[in-house]
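Tokens for chain A. Residues wanted.
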């Protein structure tokens, strides 16, 4: 059976689709799973042994995409994230069974629509994705290994005997809450005297303004900087070597959780952007999540809490 799974939005969104891909492959080991994804996610998809093929969505028209889909002779498709262009392409490609959430105008192009009401956040995003797959195979086992992405660690940034504590100031995806770069620097300074740690500030594509602000304000902070110019899969191998990854709830947080790295993550104080919906796919005991309030005093109180918790966590991780 040839099966298409569509999750062609951002990095973190695609990571939330990986458990669904895994459990489907375990349930139907002889099936061929192809994912339709955005270009940024190609390298990580190709690193997954439970994904057989990759189609990169470059924004083709519905008719152009339909021609590509037809070549694969899909028997079934699961669309975890839908838009009208992709929905119409699947209809034009005549995929016999097309399953998607019953939302948006695009649902008219699917022949099995599942009511999920994800905005109610009765489960996490990755759990909604698995539930959509399970709608076709009710007896499916939804367990998956931890960590799901078992990549060979890249220790190139590690100094002998030291634990890498990484701060990622970048801001994007569905996240709409974060500390300022200066606040991240203050957090780093609060742990600088802990023995056997190595502080790293990581920046990716589009983080040039954050990097410039960091260089301007870091003062005498003893910290390395790393600017990622490699693939997402390569960066994931680096993240796997970190002892702690500190960031807002963006794609790199989801990568860290997927490779089994402990995380300290900041979410907006709203149900839609909460950790309840966007928690990582990894071990929950390794995730330390905070909802950042909007009020100035409440935010300052939260910052002091985070600072104290960070120090305790790093001491525990390096003990």
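Reply:
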């Amino acid at each position: 059976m040839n099966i298409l799974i569509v999750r062609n939005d951002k990095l973190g969104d695609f990571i939330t689709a990986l458990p669904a891909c895994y459990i489907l492959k375990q349930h139907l080991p002889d099936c061929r799973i192809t994912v339709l994804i955005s270009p940024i996610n190609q390298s990580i998809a190709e690193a997954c042994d439970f994904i057989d093929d990759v189609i990169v969505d470059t924004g083709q028209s519905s008719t152009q995409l339909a021609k590509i889909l037809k070549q694969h002779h899909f028997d079934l498709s699961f669309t975890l994230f839908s838009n009208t262009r992709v929905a119409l392409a699947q209809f034009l490609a005549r995929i016999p069974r097309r399953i998607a959430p019953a939302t948006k105008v695009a649902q008219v192009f699917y022949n099995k629509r599942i009511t999920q009401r994800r905005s109610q956040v009765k489960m996490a995003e990755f759990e909604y994705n698995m539930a959509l797959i399970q709608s076709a195979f009710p007896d499916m086992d939804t367990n998956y290994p931890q960590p799901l992405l078992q990549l060979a660690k890249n220790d190139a940034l590690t100094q002998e005997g030291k634990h890498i504590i990484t701060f990622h100031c970048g801001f994007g995806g569905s996240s709409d809450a974060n500390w300022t770069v200066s606040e991240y620097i203050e957090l780093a300074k609060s742990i600088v005297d802990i023995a056997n740690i190595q502080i790293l500030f990581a920046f990716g594509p589009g983080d040039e303004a954050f990097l410039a602000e960091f260089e301007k304000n870091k003062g005498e902070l003893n910290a390395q900087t790393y600017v990622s110019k490699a693939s997402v899969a390569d960066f994931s191998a680096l993240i796997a070597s970190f002892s702690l990854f500190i960031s807002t709830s963006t794609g790199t947080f989801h990568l860290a959780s997927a490779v089994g790295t402990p995380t300290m993550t900041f979410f907006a104080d709203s149900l839609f952007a909460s950790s309840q919906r966007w928690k990582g796919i990894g071990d929950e005991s390794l995730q330390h999540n905070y909802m950042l309030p909007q009020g100035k005093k409440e935010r300052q109180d939260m910052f002091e809490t985070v600072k104290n918790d960070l120090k305790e966590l790093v001491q525990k991780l390096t003990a």
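Residues 296-318 form the longest helix (23 residues). The CA atoms of residues 77 and 184 lie 43 Å apart.
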